[in-house]
């Protein structure tokens, strides 16, 4: 693995057992909140860790950086990828209160909905409603969003499938993609590499593609519509309030677009529930 692709924390862990005492003390201090390095000057870090400025310089060079600025730049870049370890901070902006959590959620929703457009949502609703098959994908935490979205729309749009299923590979589904299909991918950070492969294959097939992702996702020509959700949270972990809200908005619009056919599906499903007597009454 090229040295430039090794993370800041991994560099420290690789070296820590062989460091001189002062550098080891500094390394252990950094590992508690490595993301904070992005906001420190070298002299500030030295003062907090109780070491000299020269110790800071020696450590960053030993880790493979040309100087402290290069190390700090690396940390800043890694923070944008969404690593909880890098996002956690020793000094938090707000206390862990209900009011602070509510404020963050409101801010996330406001930023997300301000960036959406009715035209984008109308396009997505039209593509999903008219598709021969709707393929819905998500990896890691995104699998939960994909499963929820599919479960909701399956009640009135049965031609949808969550991929990949247990014991399946994504290629086994890619082989069945057709031009009249629609692919919905949940790709909120941190994404796996398969997401780009999946979207590119869908583009080559000619099907419509939708990516529901985070606010830091860049511009792309691979996807027909990108819906960005603000995921900034009050702590080390991302907030997914806006992802759930965008799902809810799409699901409601899709149900309304399904018209009489969708309502008939719900009637049939309610009758089946009653016949099976499988749902609690309270």
Automatic annotation (TrEMBL):
One GO molecular-function entry: carbohydrate derivative binding
PROSITE patterns hit by this protein: HTH_RPIR (PS51071)
GO biological process: carbohydrate derivative metabolic process
Record-annotated HTH rpiR-type domain positions: 6-82
Family matches, as Gene3D superfamilies: Glucose-6-phosphate isomerase like protein, domain 1, Winged helix-like DNA-binding domain superfamily/Winged helix DNA-binding domain
InterPro entries: Homeodomain-like_sf, HTH_RpiR, RpiR-like, SIS_dom, SIS_dom_sf, WH-like_DNA-bd_sf
Protein name, entry field: RpiR family transcriptional regulator
